[in-house]
Every structure is written in structure tokens, then in C-alpha cells.
Specification:
Chain A: It is a multi-pass membrane protein. Chain A: Belongs to the binding-protein-dependent transport system permease family. The complex is a heterodimer of chains A (about 300) and B (about 270). With about 300 residues, chain A is mainly alpha-helical. Chain A has a single domain, classed as MetI-like (MetI-like fold). The longest helix of chain A is centred in the first third of the chain and has 36 residues. Chain A starts with a helix and ends with a helix. Chain B has one domain: MetI-like fold, CATH 1.10.3720. In chain B, about 75% of the residues lie in helices and about 0% in strands. The radius of gyration of chain B is 23 Å and the shape is globular. Classes of the chains: A mainly alpha (about 300), B mainly alpha (about 270). The interface between A and B is large, with 77 and 82 residues.
Amino acid sequence: MALSTTRRGSSYLFLIPAFVLYSLFVVYPLFTGLTYSVFSWKGTLRDTFVGFANYAGLLTESFRDQLLPALGHNFLLFAGTMLVQNTLGLAFALALSRVRRGKRALQTMFALPYLVNPLVIGYLWTLLLSPTFGPVNSLLRGVGLEGLAMPWLGDPATALPTVIVITTWQWVGFPMLLFSAALGGIPQEYAEAARTDGATSWQVFRRITLPLLRPAMATITILSFIGSMNTFALVYALGGSNGAPAGATDVLGLLFYRAAFASGDVNALGTSSALAVFMFTFIFGSTLLLERVLRRRT
Amino acid sequence: MRTLWIKLLLWGYAVFSMAPLVVMVLSSFRPTSEIFDEPIGLPTGSAFDNYAKAWTEASFSTYVVNSVIVVVSAVLLGAVVSLLAAYPLGRRRFGGRGLLTAYFISGMTLPAHLGVLPLFYLLESMGLVDSLLGLILVYAAGSIPFNVFVLTAFFRQLPYELDEAASLDGAGPLATFWHVMLPLVRPAIATVIVFQFVPLWNDFFYPLVLMRDESKLTLPVGLTHFFGEFQNDWGTLFAGLVMTTIPLVVLFVLATRQIVAGLTAGMNR
């Protein structure tokens, strides 16, 4: 009995360092952040309790005109990621499942860009896509595609699609690896049985492979959503904190950064905290919803 | 015939995937004037000039040293406190164990950035803004949820006879932890260390907010200053990008297995 009490006490001793560090630097700021959003601020001095006024402030015309486009861009990034990156990832995983020699080498080469810091990726591509000295445009001119040699990141019409291409280039290895793993888990017998019954390869894919990939797709969709909503370093490197050109690449993360540190507003702390809480609630809520819809058994 | 097409497509994409990185490395060894003349080309002559310039003139030496100090200390501190916490959480019975486990692990789903403003004022009140120590503490604390999650699961898997045998031999909890448990969880420790290293090495947001002093910057924010300053010196820019990337590639080559293990552990949550 004496033994078990000393053991019990020492369990808490083991926990103290992590508990203190985590509570002080993670949990406490998070909850304080929530309270920041219901006060008005004069610089760094807390003024009065204002309830939801800071949240209402997010919807005033001047702020709404930044918030809605930014949110829209986050959604376009998500849509682009799903359509381009994850579809390609699936295609590559399927293609790789038919290749024997060089499979590992290919996988490594596809996945290598995601090791690189998004900030480095952003700067690297601004150099590569530079209209005057960039190798991409000189390559396009070299093969006679003069018309395609243009300032991809400098034109508001092409900037966001270019960001999607760059994101795809960096991350396609991730869905590819996940789909490859999921494909590896599907017993060969299923497809063989279907083929003996006269199914075409499209039917095998549509009726057998695809439904069995559903859990992997759910995981990838959710992670892509969270990634697209939280994007920051890449767009910062590509277009600065204003989402250049002309706000075409502005996203929620950049907007929060500007609202908190570059707005010059006396109530910057109140506004940006409300924005942070809104972003969290929105992203977390949407993730839960996605989780429910995607993991529902059909 | 069809397989041939598939192979062609895959190798074609592999070229697209690697080309930007190859151009980055090649250009980092070329003088800027040559890059402007001929955007794609092989290095000639004085290969390491760009690196020397980035290292000395652009204070990359400072950024790299700061990054190494901060990331290594934070990863180690985070791993040590998480190991200590995961041991009782995974292996011993005491009041509030479930609650405490949930408390730590819930941090994985919390948006750390939500707390960045209060964190700034907290650090300011402690005199830790613009200090490497402040950044180390923040990073170490942020790594606790994932570390505890992975390590607790690992501790739980070890056979229970081990604790009994140790206590029969008269070992106290600390001795059991140190001599029996620690050697057995070594693979999990490697996983969390490798897995935390990458996001911390790349982290841009916290130092962007918490650090102002040029001499205290870590690589990512340093890189943004560097890009503003050396705008037209492309050779040096490419060298800077390569230097920021190299440590991660080296880590990846040395520790592929731990990274994959960490990825899958993170995915099943």
C-alpha cells in the first residue's frame, strides 16, 4: 500500500515539467486570445468589454471587402488542390502500381519537393517565373511558345492558378504516397474475380478500387482542407503580406497578419483576435462537418 | 504499349518535379551575370563565391547558428519533458490520468496561431521577446501534444512484466524509467525528434511575430530580409535557398524511416 502511494505521487512529479510548459505557452495564450476578442483595445491596453462588437466589425464594409475575397481564395486553393493535386496524386499512385522497376526512385522524386520549406518554394518560384530573367519563360520562348511566356505571378488573372500549380508541385507526393499505401491494401483477388466475370478495367476501377479508396480520400480531403485554409508562408513569399498582385493571392492567414500587425488601427488587437477566433471556429467546424460527411458509411 | 506510355508519363513528371530543384542547385554555383545571360546552364569556375557571399555579407552565418540553437534545444527540451509525461500517462494508474492525457493531446487540434498575440505579451512580460530562449520555450511547448501522443502509445505497448520485474528488484519509478523504459522507447524518441525537427526548422510565423532584432533571427525570417536586400543578386539568392534546404535533405536521407513512422502516427489520429 505504501508503495502504491509513493508511486502515485511520483506520477505527478513526472508530469510537472510538460504540464507547466504546455499550460503556460500553449493553453494560456489560446484562452486569453478568446477573451481578447470581446474587449475593445487602445493599442496594447484593454479598454472595455464590448461583447460581439469586434465580430460585427469584421462585417463592416471596409473589412468585409478584404475578408470575403481572402476567404474565397482559400476556397479556390482548396478546390484547386482537390481537382489538380489530389487527382494527380491518385493517377500517379494508380500508374505506379503497374510499374516495377524504378518505382521507389519515382516516388522519391515526386515527394522530394515537400521536404522543402514553403518559404523557399515561394522564393524559388518567384525567381523561376520572373518575366525577365526567369528560366521558365526563357524555356517557353526557346520552344516557340512565345504566347505563354508571361508574368504568371504578376498578372492578377493568373496569379492564384499559378499558386495552385506550385502547391501541387510541392505536395503531390503526399496524396500519391497515401493512395499508394491504400492501393497496396486492396486484395488482388477482387479485381481478378471481377475480370473473370467480364468487367472492363474501367468498371474494376469505378466499382471496386474507387469505393475501397474512400477512407484514404476522406483523410486526404480533410488534410487538404486544413492545409488550404491555413496557408501562409508560401503566399507570403510569392506575393508579400498584401497578397500581390492587387490582392489576387490574399488569404485569411495574410489578412490576420495585417490586421494584427500592419493595420495601424487602435483596436487592432480586438479586430485581429475576433478574426482569429472566427477562422478557428470556421476551420474547425468545417473539418468536423467534412469528417462526418466523408466518413459516413454508405 | 500502354505500360510504355505510363512509364513515359511518370518519368516526364519526375523531370518536372526535380527540375526546379536542380535549377536551384546549379544556379547557386553560377555568377549572377551568367544566370541573367543564360537562365539555365552548368556551373563554371568560381563555384562557391555565392555561398561565401551569402554566408558572410548576408549574415546567413547568424541565421543558421540561431536556427540550429533554437531548433535543437527546442526539439530536445520538448522530447525530454514529453518523455517524462508520457511515462506515467502510458504505464501507471493515478487519478486524472485520462483527463490529463486528453488535456495534452487536445493540443494537436488547437490552432496555435490563435494565441500568438497573447503569447507575444506574455513573453514581453517575461522579458523573452527577441530572445532565442523565448522561441525555444514556445517551440518546445508546442511540440508536447504530438510527442505525448506518440510516446504514450509507445509506452503502453511495452509488456507490463517489465515494471513488475523492476519493482521486485527494488527499482524506484525514476530508476525504472531510466534503466528499463528509456532504452526500449528509443525508436519512438527518434521518431518524435526527427518529426519535430522539420516543421520547427521551417517555421516562419512565430519568429515573424516574436523576433525583431536582426541578430536573433532564425533562417526563415532571415530569408525574407535576405530576399529584400539581395533582390538583384540571383546567384547569392539561390545559394541562400540551397543553404536553407540542405539540412532537411540531409536529415531525410539519414532518417527516412523515422519520418515515415512519424507521418503515419500523425495520420491515424
